[in-house]
Structure formats: C-alpha cells, structure tokens
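Query form — protein Myosin motor domain-containing protein

QUESTION: What is the three-dimensional structure of this chain?
INPUT:
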Amino acid sequence: MTTLELYTKGARVWIPHPDQVWQGAELLENYNPSKPTLAVATDDGGTATLQLKSEKDLPFLRNPAILVGENDLTALSYLHEPAVLHNLQVRFCENRDIYTYCGIVLVAINPYDELPIYDIDTIQTYRGQALGNLDPHIFAVAEEAYTQLEREQRDQSVIVSGESGAGKTVSAKYAMRYFATVGGSVVETQVEKKVLASSPIMEAIGNAKTTRNDNSSRFGKFIELQFNKQFHIVGASMRTYLLEKSRVVFQTTEERNYHIFYQLCAARKKLPQLFLDHQDHFHYLNQGGSPDVNGVDDAETFEETVNALNLLGFSEKEQIDMFKVFASVLHLGNIRYLEGIIESENEQDQEGCLIEPEDKHMKILCDLLEIDQDDMRQWLCTRKLVSMREVFLKPMTLEEATISRDALAKHIYAELFNWIVLVINRSLESDTPRHRFIGVLDIYGFETFETNSFEQFCINYANEKLQQQFNLHVFKLEQEEYIREGIGWKMIEFYDNQPCIDLIETKLGILDLLDEECKMPRGSDASWTEKLYTKCSKYPHFSKGRFGASSFVVNHFADKVQYESTGFLEKNRDTVIEEQINVIKASRNGLVKRLFASESQKLAAPGVKVKVVASKPVSVAHKTHKKSVCSQFGKTKIFFRAGQVAYLEKLRSDKLRLCCIMMQKTVRMFVARKKYLKIKRSALLIQTHVRGWLARKEVKKRRRQIVLCQSAIRRYLARKQYKRLRIEARSIEHVKTLNKGLENKIISLQQRIDEVNKTNHELRNYQSEVQELK
Ligand SMILES: Nc1ncnc2c1ncn2[C@@H]1O[C@H](COP(=O)(O)OP(=O)(O)OP(=O)(O)O)[C@@H](O)[C@H]1O
Ligand SMILES: [Mg+2]
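ANSWER: The structure tokens for Myosin motor domain-containing protein are given below.
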C-alpha cells in the first residue's frame, strides 16, 4: 500500500486557499499518474482542478474525522501543516482548548483572554499526574519537570519559544508559579515570592510596546530555580541575553521605549528630584508617536514595580539612584547640539558642534549623575585621537556627536539593566547549597519585520540554535524509544538547520566577515555587504536582497528574512567614547560609580562577538531510523509508518460504510414495506366503501324501479278488481236496503234480552236475601 493508492475518488484532501490558507476538498476522480490534472469538489460547494506536474504536487491528505481534535498532534496519521493547523483550530474554536501536545512539546495558542485555568485548584489537580493523564496544560509540563527532578534526580529545563506575542512570557510565568507553589518551602523563606516579584521589575526595564505585543520582552531570560534535597525552592538565579539597546534611543512608529521610562514620567510628581516632564517632551520617548498602552496605567504599574523592588531588597537610596540614572538617559537624549565652527588654538578652525551653555538637560544630566558638567560637555562634542606620536582632540560633527551620545545612552541603560539583574540575583541567592535546578528559558522568538536589522539577526540566529537543540532532543528521544522497544530500523535523512547555522557562524560566514570588517579602519556596511555577496553566495541559505545593494536574505528554518545591512557594523562594534565613560566613572554617586567600575576591561575588548553556544549535533543524531515495513512490533508498542493509521482507518471506515449502507437498506425496506401495507389497507378500505356506496345506490335505483313496476301492476290489478267490485256493489246495495229493517229488529230484541237478564239477576238476589232472612 503506497500513499498514492489513497488518492481515490472521494478521498478527502487539503488544498491551498488564498484567505483561509487551507481549504478542505474531496477528490472527484481517482488519481491517475498519466493525467496532469485532478478534479476536486471544495467544501464550500465549488469545484477546482489541481495542476499536477509531479506526485509532489498532490494535495495533502486529510486525517480521518475520528482523529481530528486529538490532544496530541503525534496521534495524527498525517502530520503536515494543514493537519496541524486544522487540529489546533478545531480544539481552540470548538472547545476553547488552548493547549495541545506534540509529543513532549506543548503547543499553546494565545487566547488573548483571561481563562479560569490557572488557579490554585488547577495546580493541585495537576500535582502528581503523569503527562497525558489530564488535558494538555502548562502545569502538566511543569509537573513533568518537577516529577523528573524528584524521581530521576536530574536537572530540568523548560524552554518556551515562539514568535513575538505568542505568549512565551505569560507561559514562563505560569510555569514558575507552578514551581513556586509545589516547591514552596515549608518554612516561609520568601524565595518563591521573590522569584515571582522579579517579573514585574524585569518587565518594567526589559519590556516595551511593539507593533506585535504591548508587553514585548526585548531581552532573553533564563531563570534557574534551585531546589534542596527535599525539593523545596531555596534560591534562584537569572541570566539575561541580547537586550535590545537600540530601543533606548529609537523606536519605530507605534512602538514605545522601555516601560520604566513612561512609569517614571507618570510618577514625576512623586519624584521631583528627577526633573521629569510629560513623556511627549522627551526625544527618546516620543519617536514612535504612541505614548500609551491600552488598558495600562503607567502610574499604577510604577507602584507595582516599586513594591517588587522593595520585596527584592532594593533600598530606598538604591531605588532613587536607579531612577536618577534612568532619568539621566532621558535628559541625555534631550540635549541639543548646535552646529558651528570650533576655534582651535594651534590648528585650523574646524567644523563641529557644541552644546549651549544654558542647556537645561545638560545641567540636569550632570546633577543626576553627579558628574562634572564641563568635562561631560567637552566629551559629548569632542573626541580624542591617539596617533603614534601625539594625542590630539577632534571636534565631532553634529552627526558624530549624536551617534556618540546615543551610544552613551544605550550603554548607561545596559549597565543599569545588568546591575539590576545582579542585585536581583543577589537577593535570590541561597545560603543552602543547591541540589538540583529547574531552568525556565524565555528568549524572544523568531522575528521578521518590514525592516530587519542587527537585533533581528541576532535573535533569529539564537532561534536557529534553539531549533537545532530542539530537533536533536526530539530525535534523540525518538531514537532512544526505538532502542528501548527493540525494533528494526533503517536510516533516513531529516531536516536539519546546520547549513543555515554554518552560513552564520562558520569561518568566512556572516558573523566572521562582520567581525573582520569591524576591525578594518575603513570598514563599512557597504563593503561588508559586498563581501557577503562574494563569499556567502555559495550557501543555499543566502541570497542578495531584492532591492538595492544594502540588503541580504537568510533563509531561516522559520522563514526567509531580508536584513538591511546599514548599521550592522556600528551595532556590532557597540563602542562608546572612553572619555565619556571616564567622566561618569568619576561620579560622586556610589551607584553610578559602581555601574562603570569594570568598564576599562570591557572597552579594551576587541569588537563584540555574537556567538550563541549550543552543543554541536552528534553525528548519529543527523539521522533517524525508519521502519522498512508498514508497521513493526516493539516490546510494548506497535510502530506504524506515516499514513498507515490513516490507511487502516480508511479500510475501517470503508467497511463501516458498507455496513451502514446494508443497515440503511434494510431499515428503508422495512419502513417502505410498512408504509406500502398501510397504503394498501387504506386503498382497500376506500375501495370497499366506494363499492358499497355504488352498490347501495344501484339497489336503491333498482328498488325504485321495481316499486314503480309493482305499483303499475298493482294499479292495473286494482283497477281491474275495482271494476269488478263496482259491478258487484251495485247488486249488494239492493240486498242492503232489504236487510236494513231486519237489523233494527235484531237490535231491539237484543235490548230486551239485556233487560230480562237484569231482572233475572235482581230476582235471584231477592231470593237469596229471602233465604237468609228465613
Ligand atoms: N495563556 C494566556 N492567557 C491569557 N492571555 C495570554 C496568554 N498568553 C498570552 N496572553 C496575552 O498575550 C500577550 C502577549 O503575551 P507575551 O507577552 O507572553 O508574549 P511573548 O511571546 O512573550 O512575546 P514577546 O516575544 O514579544 O515577548 C500577553 O500580554 C497577554 O495579554
Ligand atoms: Mg515575552
């Protein structure tokens, strides 16, 4: 049985649809390899003809109805895009199930709605239940990790991945809430509370409104929850990755900077020492033209941030200092440069820029950071050049000064961000040695925008690595299961994203060329892009951009992404003017000093290296094993080849169909027969009645006729008799007159008899009286 044999008339398939993506259809004919077309009837009542150049163009087969809505995608016989999407759609739209398993992976659909499935009762319900016992849920995954931690004494990690706005951060928070609840210490240590409280702080300083998500994490986060031997949480630690620094100084339309800035502006009346103004008045906050987030009150959220900071042990002084540094970034962005000619004592006057002596923001910046204003003013407009023989100062053009100011702002923000993470980690640190840990990774998912830059490139590179880890893990598990079940298998290739990773990180790959270009004195984005075109074109995952010579396309595992190369070098170098940093390092403020304490080593480090470390694929994992026959019996399971379950399902449903037809036939016959007999009986009855009526009518008619005949005859006879009697009567009349006197005589005689009898009777009575008297 090959899959081709399943393409028979009536087979249900998926065909592409311009709006619905996939549309259900049914074959109107058997597939014939020698015929280049295939007619189908679509589910909306239409018909279509599919053009088939080869077997590859055959439409995807639909899973039997019995499998649709399965809570594990691996149970589907056909596991292709339309099958997965349809199954998820059915579960989500018909049952409001947002979670579905795909083997050990949990697929979650963002409901954008508060569902009542995350309360403490639900946590208790999932506690102690094996994965698969109950409906798919993030708590089930967390429970699985916790159980394995306990039973197998092995560290665990929960990796949350997905595109921006998919619900990664929310899912990670629910997973952590689960661990905090089930792993809560008997003694109130507050660690669980602190772990949960770290979220609002990190969201305030690392999340922002984007066009995709009002609360988008602009950094990656790995939280390690540490457990003791009793498997109670004793501490935690957090690592962050790839903070999107460029957002601090620039936001595209309808996007915002980090929430903390807006929170501080909203709470400016409580913090007069920051000299903040309405958010619209800050250059670093108003470029996106979208200052508010629907349903979010920044002043209220600020209160939550402060509460969380208190819980995590940030002192009041530390908090104020922190806020001052955040505010200083905003003031830095508002410093106005004026173009001008800079006079020089021993050299020619040069074109440059300067900051007005009265610039209010310049003054506030220096007050807030407690640094020397003149020094800062100088190094914001001038840079020091060191040659072999001498050191000289060069005024910066307006553009250079703006770039260096923005670089400083990003740098200050990033340093403060790192310091906050450091303090949170210290607060979460445990005195007791950790026995095991559960890690929760929430890095931002694959991203593609209209214009993609260095940030998207780094994110997508990280996601390539993550995807590879995922592939390896899943194939390794699958492979281990085959070994456990002792089934025979042969090697097949599987899709691996190593070629794309090679393109990015190999020698003379994208990153290597970028680092080399950064080291060149005259390196530029344009010449780097040129080099990419010549050196990387051999990679199938690389191509030139569609428009202009400044873009290139990488074919990632998730999608093709076109990157705009402008700015890559600048962002990769990520350099800040050392003199500016030195001014800040000389601050009289303890926190500001601390932020830049280790700065000198960092500045000395050559070009930033972006490298995502993940273990290399093991050779055996490049391949997996496939059964050479339709099914194989393992020790405890039967393994089917793809499509076999659907084939068996087809046989079963064909058989069932025939049985149904037979039953339908019998029932229909019975019903028809019953109806027929009833009609027959009714017809007979009607016939009988009609016939009776007709007969009666006939009888009546005939009777009338007979009576008529009878009466005619009788009349005739009577007339005849009458005539005879009349003749007789005439003679009788004569006798009657004779007898009349005789009759009267008889009557008078009769009267006399009656009188005599009466007298006779009276006499007898007298006689008897006489007798008595005697
Ligand atoms: N399980 C859920 N229940 C209810 N709402 C959810 C759920 N998951 C996500 N959401 C909603 O979607 C929004 C975006 O989710 P979230 O911030 O977790 O996305 P993300 O994947 O972390 O995106 P990004 O990569 O941009 O950080 C949330 O603010 C919330 O409103
Ligand atoms: Mg997020």
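ADDITIONAL NOTE: The domain at 155-333+411-445 is CATH 3.40.850.10 (Kinesin).
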